[in-house]
């Protein structure tokens, strides 16, 4: 059995609009902190060393994370949209399906026809609760200045089609599920209209689903189906998203 890490590290080096900030406290810092709390001296600890810790300032949409319906809109399917701590855990463990669009250029919008063609190529029919992973290899450009703009995105119609097949969780190795935001803005400025800005996300107004963003290492999954995905989200109270460390589990 193989476990393949599908997450990116929490790192301030990733070039994204919502960067992480990490303050590292050394073992010596820990001794000073512990001494202050316990009424001791730092030298009371062996070699003046105690715990090392980190203070992390992190948006819930930084790093590999799972969007909850609340992220898309206040309501979903006519009811108050659920937050990440309210989502059923059963959604986040299941059969994985890998759709390879790594040959598509950054900014390409994946259509329903593209999905059907790729499923036909790999010889697979989707079933309810499959976890569908879209590969564009954007994770190979994590530290590029324009990382957030270098992925292929999924159209609103294609997203709806996946949900029609009973899919509840989808994922991408791109910065976002839609095409890059700069292309959305450019298209809207040219012809302001509905259905351009954040179109795939807004599918969540009417259809409840979750999406994993900023996956990694999808190229290391050795087959397009026949593996499990485990991607439980961190339980952020009333959160629009929760961080996750998704794993592909492949039987030998």
TrEMBL record:
Stored Gene3D superfamilies: Putative cyclase
Protein's recorded name: Cyclase family protein
Pfam families (UniProt xref): Cyclase
SUPFAM superfamilies cross-referenced by the UniProt entry: Putative cyclase
PANTHER family for this protein: CYCLASE-LIKE PROTEIN 2
Top-level taxon of the source organism: Bacteria
GO MF annotation: an example: arylformamidase activity
GO biological process: L-tryptophan catabolic process to kynurenine
